[in-house]
Queue: 4 jobs
Job 1
Amino acid sequence: MFDKILIANRGEIALRVLRACKELGISTVAVHSTADADAMHVKLADESVCIGPPPARESYLNIPSLLAACEITGAEAVHPGYGFLSENARFAEILRDHGITFIGPSPEHIRVMGDKIEAKRTAKRLGIPVVPGSEGGVTSDAEAHKIAKQIGFPVLVKAAAGGGGRGMKVAKDEASLSNALATARSEAKAAFGDDAVYLEKYLGKPRHIEIQVLGDGRGNAVHLGERDCSLQRRHQKIWEESPSPALNAEMRAKIGDTVATAMRDLKYLGAGTVEFLYEDGEFYFIEMNTRLQVEHPVTEMITGIDLVNEQIRIAAGNPLAITQKDVTFEGHAIECRVNAENPRTFTPSPGRISYYYPPGGLGVRIDSAIYQGYSIPPFYDSLIGKLIVYGKTRNECLSRLRRALDEYVVDGIETTLPLFRQLVRNPDIINGEYDIHWLENYLAEG
Ligand code: ADP
């Protein structure tokens, strides 16, 4: 096992990793920008290193600074959290070249899954069902028109290098396809420096259902069930739950086994998530995230498995300690992502937290790095906390979530808490009847 781990992240996820390290008896190194000198992850770590000025590209994304921090502190491994360098194959490679363990998959797997066209091709080869669409990238308008006609309108133009919903455009009909292609291309070029795009059938009312996996790189892999992340605005998840209100045990086992088998074939190492759209009883692969996800706690709550602990154990070279039979699902968990944003316009609302009172009690978990008097810097993601609630049944979970949201106080800034207080009382949400467009429609209705 490692003696010392450097956590190349900030905010709640830095704390999440730090907690797992402490429980494993591993020393922790926090890194921070000058804007984060007062951050909680810095206060709680055994050591900390300032790695640069506020902009992320000069600090949290600054590979030479991170390498120097590893060298100065003697850290043997780096946990990247999510975002920042967590899906950067080059970073994983550079660490490997310096004899430092990247807590995550091999650079090769990160690279394959980071290119959505390659990822889709790989998924198909491994027997995972994919969305009908172009076989690879589309290079000309004429080719796109031909393929679109075959799969049928509406179609979605997606960026090969895509992420965060950028470089994605719907074409309703033939007339709008050329325009959608051009817009997606220029958006992708601007955001990712790569204008490769591909076509997919646009699904009208799917749910977003993803499967959590763990593999040890030796051909052992298990799935930890699904998370339903259909409640999204601008393709960003805000509410995640497990189990999905749309699946039964048989469907879960079927898609879970398909994914676990694929991960065994791939000799996948670490934690990962295979994302699907689910419509009319069918699953369609959209992408794989080769890292820990924001919404991982809901899976932890219903399986009792500490995902970060497992990531660290596997990265240290230990074989998977659990088999599929050991994975059981009990109860229901929901996560709400609390952002420092206006709950209607979603405009960021950084600033000082004048009063803070997080909820507690049975089945309530808060993953957050904020505290009373803390000033949220304007430079980073606006996620300030995750409220994760567990109940024996979905109904118990919803009642508990309702009262936890009512207890939660964050004063001095705007947060998305009022939106969640409405959602948890909405009949569609209570009945579990929502698809990926539900929230946008709800918000549009005012
Ligand atoms: P990103 O990497 O940019 O997040 P994804 O491929 O994961 O892109 O898709 C993000 C979201 O976009 C999905 O959760 C879903 O809401 C929507 N989406 C993606 N592909 C399709 C599709 N073929 N049909 C309808 N919606 C889609």
Job 2
Amino acid sequence: MAQQEDVFKKIVSHAKEYGFVFQSSEIYDGLAAVYDYGQNGVELKNNIKRYWWDAMTLLHENIVGIDSAIFMHPTIWKASGHVDAFNDPLIDNRDSKKRYRADVLIEEQLAKYDEKIEKEVAKAAKRFGESFDEALYRQTNPRVCDHVARRDALHERFAKAMNDNDLEELKQIILDEGIVCPISGTKNWTDVRQFNLMFKTEMGSTADGSMTVYLRPETAQGIFVNYLNVQKTGRMRLPFGIAQIGKAFRNEIVARQFIFRMREFEQMEMQFFVRPGEELKWFDQWKQWRLAWHKALGLGDEKYRFHDHDKLAHYANAATDIEFKMPFGFKEVEGVHSRTNFDLSQHEKFSGKNIKYFDPELNESYVPYVIETSIGVDRMFLSVLCSSYEEQALPNGETRVVLHLPEALAPVKCAVMPLVKKDGLPDKAREIVNDLKFDFATHYDEKDSIGKRYRRQDAIGTPFCITVDHQTLEDNTVTLRERDSMEQTRVNVADLHRLIHGRVSLNALLRKLG
Ligand code: ATP
């Protein structure tokens, strides 16, 4: 674990050093849990967004996009339940003065039981070797059974407390489990309190009466309140979806782990409107489609898992998270939720407008049910970055830091380098850049030794380096070096476009999704 934390620290500093992510307002000592994307970060982020947007809107003829405003009428947040219920349970440790989410403390305790169980099993597997019957061992070993029983009991108690919103019980669980503050090491806890995560601000001048408005904590409501507009103007028939990418804001209690939990972040959400009664079928379908979208990136199928929710949000009748194996454990990257007709019904009630859909096949009107897929751009960015980072030992004894980014997502697709800064090689290299730049993000680099230039491109995940040498002037060939294998092949300049395009275009990625 400690080793994993080290790796994570290195990734964070790499992200800064190579212009991916900076602390916001850094020259003023930063603003907690707010980050800026640098020159490479913004490209990677845009590519992730493009991949999502195209997978939604190009591959599904019944999904269209919108871009709604961040400010919305405040009654929307009353209707959606966010004013009353968008809370996290917080608890303070009196000795360290540190603040925690009570639910997260308990979830970490649950993970500890899991770790103990897995450790016992791994130990036994080693001891018994070939003859090890894992299933039998899990069922019969007294220590494993004891851990499982404790874990299950805690799980049940926790889920009940969360569903009942029982703050006293949450505190009691923390005390009974002997959970201590990681900083002070004590159990000197305050009571658990609810904390609303929405940011408020004022709109309009105070003289003529200002109005309290919220910075949206999710992009979804902008879709719901435009449901009718899109359905009518786009002549959409159920089932159909509306996709949106945009900023969301949450005053998170504990903001740690870099861009995993931010106070200003970006979401990619799609609401899929379906007939009542068909929602669970579509829920399963969207779970599979979304997992396929993640896996197509090739970051490793074993790094994903579904985690079904114990506590369903006030609006949901089924919900699952797609979790990704970060250096700090499996963590939620995306949620797939069956939100029933809750939001549209609430907006119908609060606005007094009819939001029903007339179904020509059934010849009846109803409020559609909704399946939502909601993914954080920043968490997706983090998962891509973490799984791509490698400190690689090379056969010659040197090491290189390389980002094995999925090629279609890489900020720079190719770098063109004259071997030396003379003999007309820079001109030839520029000529190649001027041809490729219309299709690919292309860098020109002539500084330092060729080895150093390759390392710089490896560090930002550039899939291809093209080197122009004296032979190029004679026969119009260059060397094409691949980032991952470091193999170099001699190719004709005329073939560069085709070779690179075949590897780095989003098209190839999208085709995997059908
Ligand atoms: P968590 O339990 O981690 O707080 P959540 O369940 O509240 O997340 P959702 O409301 O389902 O998250 O939001 C959908 C997605 O938005 C999440 O899967 C995540 O990728 C992203 N997201 C939510 N909160 C944040 C945040 N504070 N910083 C970055 N991304 C976030």
Job 3
Amino acid sequence: MQNQIYMSPENQGVFLRFKTQLLALVQTERVKLQARDWDFFMLRVERYFGDFYDPFSRLYAGREDFEQQLVAIGEQLVAAFRERKHELKLLDFEREITPNWFERETMVGGIYYVDRFANDLKGLLEHLAYIKELDLNYIHLMPLLKPRAGQNDGGYAVEDYCQVNPLLGSMSDLEDLAGHLHADGRSLCIDLVVNHTAKEHDWAKRARSGETKYLDYYLTFDDRTLPDAYEQTLPQVFPDFKPGNFTYYPDMAGGQGKWVWTTFNEYQWDLNYHNPAVFRGMLDYMLFLANRGVDILRLDAVPFMWKRMGTNCQNQPEVHELLQAFRALVRMVAPGVLFKAEAIVAPYDLIHYLGTGSHIGRECEIAYHNSLMVLIWSALASRKVALMTHSLMQIPPTPPGTTWVTYVRLHDDIGWAITPENAGAVGENDFLHRRFLNEFYAGIFPGSFATGEVFQFDTTTGEGRMSGMTASLAGLEQALAEVGSSKVGGHEQAKQQQLDLAVRRILLLYSVAFSYGGIPLIYMGDEIGLLNDYTFRHEPLKKDDNRWMHRPPMDWAKAEERHGNNLTGRIYGEFRALIAARKHTLELDGTSTVQPFWTGNEHVFGYVRYHPTGRRLVILCNFSEQTQLVAGGRVWDGLGTITSGQNLQDVRQPHSPTVTLPLGDNLFELEPYQTVWLKPAKVV
Ligand code: OTU
């Protein structure tokens, strides 16, 4: 089994001999040693007890049954640890002594819908070669637990957390897959929907039929008094699908009728975390999945887990208490498992999911860098980097032991999380800018290169979000249509240039995701430039949700062309080079901090990565389709004066000659949409 402990290639041979010698010496003891697992478990319980107990008691200590809750949690922990397989315990140990295993520059992730990529889990195993060829070692499989029948929000309405969606396979298929991934140092991420269950989940069915115990698992109301009061300050997530945040069920509780809190769709019922039984229920699911070999739990919709009257019921302090308590308990049993926060919130709310203040080191290890994602799309449309530079400067560094996941697109819409403060600071109006972005990416804005669609336009606020695949939003769909059309007067060369620019835009965005700081994720199909898929319009269960346009089935015919001398081959080749460059650049590991700087050119975004070893990397990104010039002195300032005058190497072009960066006001040139990752060249 290949593990994640890093060893220099030179040491590997000698280590193997050393290991063989040691193994021979301890052969008899090894069997006995396994029984010591329980000692390690007890040590962890001790180590993390405070991390769990402090927030847990702040949440629930007032209750009469508080002591019983503690006893029950103790039983859950022991049962889960008893069941944890030896191989997983080894992996835990390995990760405990290599705590930043997931922050390494070698980590690169991919996101896949099992059915759309390979039909089912067995099929995925067969297609693993594709993932291996891309050298991805963090595999996020989109929701795969058993969803409700019919509409299920792409799998985010789970009926049974202990079963895999039968269309995709079984729990043992999942375990099998996890084993295969672990065998060569890869990890598996799956979704755990913590905020709500499907209304067909056992708890919900019992609540609906009126069992008092289960009514308390959800947020239910006899009349509109409280819902109306909450609605005063609640935004709407899916105003098109279901206006408001509550749904009335006349048949509920024996015909009494009740309103149920449903933030998302009608069939997704928000859980009531004021009730510790819900906490324990979710803990069971976490431990169960950890024991199946899942390495990363993507905690869906975490900001919504705690409601408070008079607020937007997101990001409440109790959410962080809950996450810390869960984090500590799962660590006691399965310390190798990571928590990933899915909190698509305003920039100032985001960092807290990585644990700040009293939660430092105690919350999620990773979280989506939603702000970065929004800002790169914003800069691509406006060709201006001031808003991005300013906004990113406001985001504090990630707390030690945590990192972002950085991405360009995924299965959701893009919500334009741009604050009035940040927009105002660069002379923009946030509302008008969001409107511009929607019009630009919907292709309505004159001269726009994009093909996308507005998602969930809210008529009460005038706000909307955006759907579309990376390639289509970046102009490839339009450029290809032009090439295909025989429109009189179209110049072939101009058409080819549009194609070229679209490819450059895709790579520009991914270059930022790969170097800004965090685990970069490639969304399935982006590496071969898959376009929007409009077939959802003919599928009754999907037609109203245009997020399906960016959830296309894997185009294996196109994938076959990936090594060829064609458009697909070019995009794929560039992705491969990007992945390789990332994996060879130590400065990109998660312990490096990032500092954006003003390049003096409003079209060129610049940032420096500072590695704890003192190494530095300066990255420049031209967000316009014109050649741009940057004063060399600006770049040298970023690198620090010690290296000034030295030649620089673009680590993306290791075989190209080094770059001589001019000093002072002398200009350095960037091609349209070019990005460079520069570091001082090795002195020979
Ligand atoms: C998530 O997204 C999922 O990624 C979506 O696919 C689901 O529909 C949804 O949860 C419900 O399970 O509002 O528009 O701050 O923004 O949880 C997407 C987090 C969403 C929310 C996020 C949510």
Job 4
Amino acid sequence: MSCYEFRSQFIDGHWKDGSDSQASSDVDPFSGALLFEVRCASVEDVDAAYSAAATAQRSWAATSPAARSIIFRRAAEIVERRRTEIVDWLIRESGSTRIKAEIECRAVQEGMLEAASIPYRTTGLILPIDTPDTESRVYRKPIGVVAVISPWNFPLHLSHRTVGPALATGNAVVIKPAEETPITGGLLLARLYEEAGLPAGLLNVVTGSSRTIGDAFCTHDIPRFISFTGSTEVGRRIGRLAIEARVIKRVALELGGNNPLVVLDDADLDRAVEAATLGRFLHQGQICMSTNRVIVEAGIYDAFLARLVSAVEQVQHGDPASSGTLVGPAFNAKQFAQNMKHIEDARSRLRQVVGGDPVGTVIPPHIFADVENADPLAQTEMFGPILFVIKARDEDHALELANATEAGLSSAVFTQDEARGLRFALGIEAGMTHINDMTVADMPFNPFGGEKNSGMGRFGGDWIIEELTTTHWVTVRRPARVPVIS
Ligand code: NAD
């Protein structure tokens, strides 16, 4: 099996260089090595990709469920065979630790297997109707062409969680991956699906600068849906563009988080410590669901903090390719500088209980204790290995603090009383809450998404089928039956 080779664009089944005059460099975040020189896409390339998608989509929508399903099963087999190559790309291009790269590769494969079932689960309805001799039907149809904009942190999975269900429901897709992850955010998926036999034009990838093609990508007449994953700031802008475009588009916005992990006074402290450690420091904290704030009831605060500090001091950091590394490199110079600025700010006025100096681009884990929930740092999403521990007077106070944020993506609560945990979980203003588990969790058959400034829309299961299809109400009135005269 030979390794995949890439050109910078994949449009209508053809690998080609972008036609913009600019090029950008794809760099390994740990070693700084140049991996790939990307000739950027132009606005004309975006147009060509959307046109190819629109043409290919019409015949794809008419194919049988079996013809669509088989593509995803084949793709999942190819991921199995190419696992080493895929994991290697995730380590080198997106600075993933091996642990995280393996998780991401598995998530994509599971997403493909879930997508294989979607053509058989996309159904219409026959509704009751009071009008005589009339039937009321609801047809479920693909939405058309779906635009995907994904971030660099979980590039392969965050592109694929739309790509898989979108293709499975009969749509075509154009991906614009993050500038810094053209391969793992898009081109690698295109290669996998090309090898799986997906017809040309159904999956297109345009890579390059958002400044050059961002607006054209979001406002083009052809796409009917924009699936955006990224920061709240950019997401707001994309949402506005989608509504103001000449042809209005539906939009799903999966945005930033500020996820609380709450430890109540009857919690199993070891389990809570394990979840806080992994949930904060996996992928060096660069996950939308990472734990940002640990909120602990006063009675167990000191005991919990002591155990957390001793666990986090054992966390391995450094070379992402080493099997035991949990904390690898900051993704790029911007992320590194931003995290160091937060750390300096925190050191100047908060109590640091774990820390250290960076080695190269690797920032070791940091914990600050006795933090006020209203502190601007605690109110900011730390996209790095920085954790804040906050003391709550009691359970009600803990809930108040958990909800005192503009974000509402994921959350967790630890207690050995299931009823108490459930009551607490349902009080949290978030799309997702895990009782006695970490804030980081994503499965292709469960609803994934946020409340408040964490966005709108849900991935997974039947929720993503609903997002990526449209309903068409059709009534059929038949000639009145002639009464039978005896
Ligand atoms: P970002 O918003 O800077 O970029 C996200 C994507 O948007 C990239 O592909 C980027 O190229 C593109 N983009 C930027 N400006 C654009 C424009 N004007 N037009 C079109 N596209 C544009 O975010 P990031 O720094 O890449 O990712 C980190 C953020 O993403 C964090 O806030 C994180 O919480 C969030 N995130 C959310 C989820 C979720 O599911 N809720 C998942 C992962 C990351």
